[in-house]
Amino acid sequence: MKDKRIVILTGAGVSAESGLGTFRDKDGLWTKYDLNDVATPEGFARNPEFVHNFYNQRRQNLVDATPNAAHHALGRLESEFPGDVLVVTQNIDRLHEMGGSKNVLHMHGEMLKSRCDFCQHVIHWEGDLNLAMRCEQCGTAGAMRPHVVWFGEMPFYMDDIQHALDLCDLFLSIGTSGNVYPAAGFVAQVRHRGTAHTVELNLEPSEGSALFHDSVLGPATEVVPSYVDDLLANGW
Ligand code: NAD
């Protein structure tokens, strides 16, 4: 297994049992907010104060959240698996890192960072954002925004992710509904190559469920630790 590579795509479901709501489930955030208002560059241009307030509330939930058994199991997988393990997460929380994962790409950004819309300077930021803030690098006022990828914006690290998908031997998809592209298309890309095994671990079958070789259904805190134990003991 020394030269084997695992890519793990994660979504909101992996953090649900840490108390961070998912977006598309029955009580998900998109049932309470219009994503065009709070998760698009146009929404931010229309009403930046409203968007800041939305993210300020979410950021405080996230600062207090702690990793669950699924995050810890993935951290253990990275430290005990003899080959490469990469987590590609759509989540904007920091729970993978807190659970011990070091090799993590946040393709949709990170909520505990803020970016200047003018010069693109990124800072670590756990407090509230407001329109009076100035960028510490270029001095522009009112340009600091959440360092997250909104609908209509290009996800981060796409070259690195494509490269990892092209080389992986095992592709896992955990706690993601398979609704948001490009992440939802990763499994088809890996299957097309024909040499990697693909498994989804989710509460219920995701949109692309039929594309995976195997499906393990149940809460992430239960299915992920036992899947990782089995993987470390027996491979795939
Ligand atoms: P999603 O809300 O569309 O789907 C979540 C999936 O997780 C669903 O398929 C659901 O069945 C499954 N799920 C729910 N609870 C679960 C559990 N306990 N165990 C296992 N699976 C569970 O989320 P998504 O696919 O990640 O895509 C939507 C976007 O939401 C992403 O862009 C992401 O940035 C954003 N988001 C992030 C967070 C976070 O950072 N924690 C939270 C909410 C949404």
Query: Could you give me the name of the CATH homologous superfamily of the largest domain?
Result: TPP-binding domain
Q: Which residue ranges are poorly predicted, with pLDDT under 50 across at least 5 consecutive positions?
A: none
What is the alpha-carbon Rg in Å? 18 Å
Q: Specify the structural class.
A: alpha/beta
CATH topology of the largest domain: Rossmann fold
> How are strands sequenced across the largest beta sheet?
3-2-1-7-8-9
Top-tier CATH class of the largest domain: Alpha Beta
Q: What small molecules does the structure contain?
A: nicotinamide-adenine-dinucleotide
For the sheet with most strands, the description reads: 6 strands, parallel
What is the architecture of the largest domain at the second tier of CATH? 3-Layer(aba) Sandwich
Count of helical regions: 8
User: Approximately how much beta-strand content do the residues carry?
Assistant: 15-25%
Overall number of domains: 2
The overall strand count is: 9
Distance from N terminus to C terminus (CA atoms, Å) equals 10 Å
> Looking at the structure, what is the overall shape?
globular
Mean pLDDT, nearest integer? 95
